[in-house]
């Protein structure tokens, strides 16, 4: 089995690429980083440090790499059995044109072997959204063929892969946590579902998408924003601060009540899941900056993302949201001169006021009582009285 994976960064190499290669799949990475591409293409392997209670270094083998800007990508798309991505939600539209051209080449070669495309991004229904971008770039005469032979399979992915500098100077070395989860929508595959250890098919994907979004992503973001507010630079230092820990656990408990009511999760098991995530944040072997986790606050404050979406769920099911409100206020306080969205958000607040700025980015009506609640906590944070 052959796969083309877009994105040879830390997540691509340390998570999806590793799982595929470990399963015996011949993986070709596509990326714009020429130094990484050349190293992968010449060595065909790279080291992954898997860190936790029992840390190991594993060598990922049987890999290759090409430039995502070259015509080699079109050839690969016309031949492979699987395409995966780990490029970031904002990059998916940029690679849609190349994928569309590759699919036309595949059709023109009359390759009717099923092809499945899985966008492994931190977004809801990422593959379905990616399909929209690809189809917009695809000549209309190819649409029926693609719908018949190409599956766009939505997934939920979970593994903490912080930026890490190799102690040996190896450009390909990457560090990841022991835990990983890759859940895919089994109803969207074309042909047989590949047997890949670590990839879990389900017919109820949204339950797991929202479980991860409302728990890992929500807790991670609030830890980062409160850590930044209190002058703590790493996720570990932040979650070990009892003030932050109580709010983060409380927020995940509030979002958890939404999940339990919406999907019927067992409350005891979900409480254990929350504690597992908190322990992951504490991992002493992972150096993860609050600035990295908190980046792009406008996206993270949007209606379908990790802060506002669970908040909206608390309205739907009439459950408390006090800690989520604190997390949202902390996100609005986030300042980072190296983050374009943080700068844009600060400008919006300065020009429009906190109430209108939050309404604009979240989609919640400015007159909604929760906007007032967030604004009040934001003011205490600004006054350093929180």
Percent of sequence in beta strands: 15-25%
Q: Can you tell me the number of structural domains?
A: 2
> Could you spell the SSE succession in H and E letters?
EHEHEEEHEHEHHEEEEEHHHHHHHHHHH
User: N- to C-terminal separation?
Assistant: 55 Å
Architecture (CATH level 2) name of the largest domain: 3-Layer(aba) Sandwich
The biggest sheet, with number of strands, parallel, antiparallel or mixed sense and barrel status, is: 6 strands, parallel
CATH superfamily of the largest domain: NAD(P)-binding Rossmann-like Domain
Strand order of the largest sheet: 5-2-1-6-7-8
Radius of gyration: 21 Å
CATH fold category name of the largest domain = Rossmann fold
State the total count of DSSP E strands: 12
Q: Quick one: overall form?
A: globular
* CATH domain class of the largest domain: Alpha Beta
Uncertain spans, ≥5 residues at pLDDT below 50? none
Fraction of residues in helices? 40-55%
Structural class: alpha/beta
If you average the pLDDT, what whole number results? 96
Enumerate how many helices there are, as a single number: 17
Structure, explained:
With 386 residues, the protein is α/β, with parallel strands linked by helices. It folds into 2 domains: 2-203, NAD(P)-binding Rossmann-like Domain (Rossmann fold, 3-Layer(aba) Sandwich); 206-382, N-(1-d-carboxylethyl)-l-norvaline Dehydrogenase, domain 2 (Orthogonal Bundle). The chain has 17 helices and 12 strands. It has helices at residues 10-22, 34-43, 72-77, 92-108, 126-137, 143-149, 205-229, 235-239, 242-263, 267-281, 290-294, 297-300, 308-317, 322-333, 340-352, 354-362, 369-382, and strands spanning 2-6, 26-31, 45-51, 56-61, 63-67, 82-85, 115-119, 150-152, 155-158, 174-177, 181-185, 199-202. The strands form 3 sheets. A 6-stranded parallel sheet has the order 5-2-1-6-7-8. Strands 4-3-10 form a 3-stranded mixed sheet, covered by helices on one side. A 3-stranded mixed sheet has the order 9-11-12, covered by helices on one side. Helix 9 (242-263) crosses helix 13 (308-317), helix 14 packs across helix 17 (369-382) and helix 16 (354-362) packs across helix 17 (369-382). The longest helix is centred in the middle third of the chain and has 25 residues, at 205-229. The protein is globular.
